[in-house]
Design brief:
heterodimer, A: 463 residues, alpha+beta, 14-stranded antiparallel barrel, 24 strands, B: alpha+beta, Porin, 2 domains, 14-stranded antiparallel beta barrel
Chain lengths: 463, 507
């Protein structure tokens, strides 16, 4: 009997062993075929429509179809009744939801899995059962009606579909229409098929660092700019250097509040020059992502004649800025601030002159009311720090900065926030608000406002 | 002890047996899934098929092919009425060579029975059967490798001699998605825009997408050539005759009642402009509109015309009595396609005498003085940028970015008719155009222009088209009052509007 049992067992064991090994090879081969039948759209996985079914009644309806069809599998094996019962308790308690993903080019479902609530958005979620990766098999389990209901999303669900691509930079043309600092890139060329020279028209309304933000500057600077990229990049801030040359024109304020008694006017034709770039890496290779910029405006033609200001009925005093100079350094990509953006910080110094002039319709020339002062004495000096976060790419881009400065001769400090937010790098808003602190009323320029709010919509078309 | 041992042996036996049954079930399920997918998924199967007739190929080793489920062995039928189709998967990341999936048999019953009425066989008279299912083929692969090898060899031979049919239902090449649409690198966008919006004739360029569609349907491009081309609306008319096509240039005539730079409607400008327009292509050996340098030039003369009282009577102009006279002079209007990679550029100049002018409209201003305002000179220079939301070019955009200027002279009759320039300012000008042209047919257009703190909005919509020659459009425009500045003395105090019907013949 014993011998017979051993013989029987051995026979069954070996037969089973060989049979199971053969079957597992066959199954593995079949699974490979099964997984290869569809046109592979793996590259679009993150862009496919995907959602979480969180309708408790509908989840039970679906779950029950799986129970009835005995379709639950874990590692390709049927599960025990106890295991299903345990998971059913989780269903009762609403701890299990369903993750669904559609195919990219049509409307069928390509991924369907019961997922524990705490596994949603995990990098490698642990599903309750093996996911169903074939809509036609899912249709067999659920039946056509329920399958269509799943597809049409006629129930409570959380949409997880990524709505857009990352923003990429094109070098064909780039129209950045922002009233405060527009930039119209209209021509490009390359000298070695890797680099780019971009030619653009630029504008600049005011300067935050000498506390003449946007609309309050009474002057618009415009000109031409060359930007060089040693390697083309998807981040427009990764340029190697940029040179801007421009001139000025009078500008009026779009929204006029209470105008100071002694306004700020343009009193000549100016040359504007700005050179900026990532130059410090040439001193030491570790000093990358430092944006160094030198910027100046110099009035080379003074409007000395009364007629240069048009015909005004009465005498009045006004101020004018003829020259300014700004030196700034900004370190980019310091660290990632909680995925909110790359933290960047910098600072600099600036100097600007102010001339106190008088218009008299009876006189031929404009009078300099501070003629006794030397040119150097007409300058006041600023020191400032600027820090914030910058985020490029993705659906929403933003640049949020805080600027804090102090004017030594003027006896005042100023601080403000600058917020630039773009949607899909196409539509956005640029808002800046500045206020003063520690003002010495005796020294404070009468043409200055106490607080400044400027904003501009942004439209960017880039191809 | 002996009982326990026997029980254990029995349990082990059952477990092993159950395990085997379980593996078999698993295998069967997988087969079912694949069979179901092959039969139901019409879109995503990345598979191919190739047809053959048994009498046209050597079928070595392919006799009495065993099949599962007690079905009799299969033999290819060499009759003319029977054709076969091998369905297979090409090599991919999982398999290094072709994988045969199924063999289908098609029987042409009409041919076999002889159609009484002599009509040709149709799809309905064909019977398609899967003679070797996926599971049959897999059984051959694992249990009759020599038969599978013969089948594989046959399919390889067929593929070498014929192009297999792709069974993928989705059109992946036509559904290529781009994140931000496209912008043409040649004159395509420029020509598309002008064809739809210009009141002069432009050769219509067939889009690449349309070319493909026509090729696939075996269609030939339809061209309707007419001797005349006319575009007429309530505010302008243009005319072209075929003899004025000189090959390198076409010449047409135009009369209009508007003034381009100014924020005024036709008839409100109190002037009439007439002249010729020439479309010049500067080609190499042969003309290629898509690549050639193109200049669209208008040279016209402008004369004052007192329409101030008429404007109040015209039912399609809704403006208050105009106050700004437009001076007589010449008009030059140029648009050029891209040269040396630069954007499309536009230049407009209208200029005339700055002193010698007798105004049509004088009025008493706020100070009680009798005055007249007139503008002798306007210019505008801009760059045009084009883009489309997709390769079909259904939604087309154009943005003109530039600067414009006009000057205004004031004649004060209360002080003896002295003339002084009261306005001369260069200002930014921005115009966004949007066209909706499904399948390259003009259907809807709009533009939004911001200049001199005024917004001008224009819309047009195609109403009807017949014989591919005659079409009618409804057009409307609105000019806002100035915003963020005070209204000047020569400007209307409120917004104004205008509508028109445009007739196009031969476009």
């Amino acid at each position: 009997m014993k011998k017979f049992s051993l013989l029987l067992l051995s026979l069954v064991f070996f037969q089973n062993g060989f049979s199971q090994e053969a079957d597992s090879v066959t199954t593995a081969n079949l699974k490979k075929i099964y997984n290869s039948l569809e046109y592979n759209t793996m590259a679009f996985n993150d862009l496919k429509e995907q959602w979480i079914i969180n309708d408790p009644v509908f989840i039970r309806e679906i779950y029950n179809r799986f129970v009835v069809r005995n379709a639950f599998r874990v590692n390709d094996k049927k599960v025990t009744r106890e295991f299903v019962q345990q998971k059913t308790d989780d269903i009762y308690n609403g701890h299990i939801l369903i993750e669904v993903r559609k195919r990219y080019y049509d409307d069928e479902i390509e991924f369907f899995a019961f997922i524990p609530e705490d596994q949603i958005n995990q990098p490698e979620p642990k599903y309750v059962f093996d996911p169903v990766i074939d809509g036609f098999y899912l249709k067999e389990i659920l039946n056509d009606k329920i399958y269509d209901k799943v597809r049409t999303r006629d129930y409570y669900f959380d949409n997880l579909t990524k709505t857009d691509y990352d923003v990429k930079t094109g070098y064909y043309f780039d129209l950045n229409l922002n009233l405060l600092d527009p930039d119209i890139m209209y021509w490009n060329t390359t000298s070695n098929a890797r680099n780019k020279y971009l030619l653009s028209l630029f504008g600049k309304w005011g300067d935050d660092r000498i506390m003449q933000p946007g609309w309050y500057a009474n002057e618009y600077i415009f000109g031409s700019k060359v930007t060089y990229f040693s390697n083309i990049s998807n981040n427009q801030k990764n340029y190697t250097y940029s040179v801007s040359l421009g001139t000025n024109a009078p500008a009026s304020k779009p929204f006029i509040g209470t105008v100071p008694a002694k306004p700020l006017y343009v009193s000549g034709k100016s040359l504007y020059v700005k050179i900026s770039g990532d130059f410090m890496k040439y001193i030491d290779e570790s000093l990358t992502d430092f944006d160094l910029s030198v910027e100046t405006k110099y009035t080379f033609v003074d409007n000395l004649k009364t007629l240069d200001y048009g015909k005004k009925p009465a005498k009045f005093d006004f101020y004018s800025n003829k020259t300014y100079f700004v030196l700034e350094v900004m370190k980019r990509n310091l660290f990632n601030l909680f995925d909110f953006g790359q933290f960047e910080a910098g600072g600099g110094i600036a100097s600007a002159d102010i001339h106190h002039l008088q218009y008299d319709p009876a006189a031929v020339k404009i009078t300099d009311l501070q003629g006794s002062k030397s040119l150097f004495d007409k300058f006041s000096h600023f020191a400032f720090v600027d820090f914030g976060v910058d985020r490029t790419g993705g659906l929403i881009q933003h640049n949020l900065h805080t600027l804090i400065g102090y004017n030594v001769q003027g006896g005042f400090g100023y601080f403000g926030v600058k917020m630039k937010v773009m949607l899909n790098d196409t539509f956005g808003m640029d808002i800046r608000y500045f206020n003063t602190y520690g003002v010495d009323k005796k020294k404070y320029d009468p043409w200055r406002y106490d607080s400044f709010l400027v904003f501009s919509p942004i439209i960017r078309i880039n191809y | 002890m002996k009982k326990v041992a026997v029980s254990l042996v029995f349990i082990l036996f059952l477990l092993l047996l159950f395990g085997n049954v379980n593996a078999q079930t698993n295998l069967k399920n997988t087969y079912n899934k694949i069979e179901r997918k092959l039969s139901e998924d019409k879109n995503y199967l990345d598979t191919y098929s190739i047809m053959f007739q048994a009498n046209a190929v050597k079928l070595e080793g392919l006799q009495n092919i065993p099949r599962i489920n007690d079905r009799p062995p299969f033999n290819f039928n060499p009759a003319e009425t029977h054709s076969y189709e091998v369905v297979f998967m090409k090599e991919n990341s999982e398999f290094d060579s072709t994988t045969v999936l199924q063999v289908k048999e098609t029987i042409d019953k009409a041919a076999s029975t002889g159609d009484f009425f002599g009509t040709s066989s149709s799809e309905s008279s064909k019977e398609v059967n899967i003679v070797l299912t996926f599971q049959d083929v897999e059984e051959l692969y694992f249990n009759h490798p020599e038969v599978y090898a013969a089948l594989f060899k046959l399919s390889e031979f067929l593929v070498q001699n014929n192009e297999p049919v792709k069974l993928l239902g989705i059109k992946v090449d036509e559904q290529v998605n781009k994140s931000k649409g496209i912008s043409s690198k040649n004159n395509q966008d420029f020509l598309n825009f002008q064809t739809v919006n210009s009141n002069h004739h432009y050769p219509k360029v067939v889009l690449e997408a349309q070319k493909k569609a026509r090729r696939s349907r075996g269609q030939v491009q339809e061209t309707v050539a007419t001797d005349y081309k006319i575009d007429a609306s309530f505010g302008d008319v243009s005319f072209f005759y075929k003899d004025l096509d000189l090959g390198y240039s076409t010449i047409s005539g135009e009369i209009n009642m508007g003034a381009k730079v100014l924020n005024v409607h036709p008839w409100q400008a109190m002037s009439i402009t007439a002249g010729i327009r020439s479309l010049v292509t500067i080609s190499a050996a042969s003309q290629n509109l898509l690549e050639d340098f193109i200049i669209d030039a208008r040279l016209m003369g402008r004369a004052k015309m007192n329409t101030s009282s008429l404007v109040g009577s015209l039912p399609f102009v809704f403006v208050t009595k105009p106050k700004l006279n437009v001076g007589s002079g010449i008009v030059l209007d140029l648009s050029a396609s891209r040269a040396y990679g630069l954007p499309f550029v536009n230049f407009y100049l209208a200029t005339g005498a700055t002193k010698a002018f007798t105004p049509s409209v004088k009025f008493v201003d706020r100070k009680g003085e009798n005055v007249a305002y007139f503008t002798p000179q306007q210019w505008e220079s801009s760059m045009s940028f084009y883009w489309n939301t997709s390769e079909d070019m259904t939604l087309r955009f154009r943005l003109d970015v530039g600067a414009a200027n006009y000057n205004v002279q004031k004649i004060n009759y209360s002080t003896g008719g002295s003339i002084n320039q009261v306005f001369n300012k260069i200002q930014p000008a921005l115009t966004l155009y949007l066209n909706f042209a499904p399948k390259n047919n003009d259907f809807f257009g709009s533009s939004f222009r911001l200049f001199d703190n005024q917004l001008t909005i224009k819309f047009w919509l195609k109403l009807i088209e017949f014989s591919s020659l005659h079409s009618f459009r409804f057009e409307t425009s609105y000019i806002s009052v100035p915003f963020m500045r005070a209204v000047r003395e020569w400007e209307p105090e409120e917004g104004s509007s205008y509508f028109s019907i445009r007739y196009r013949y031969g476009f």
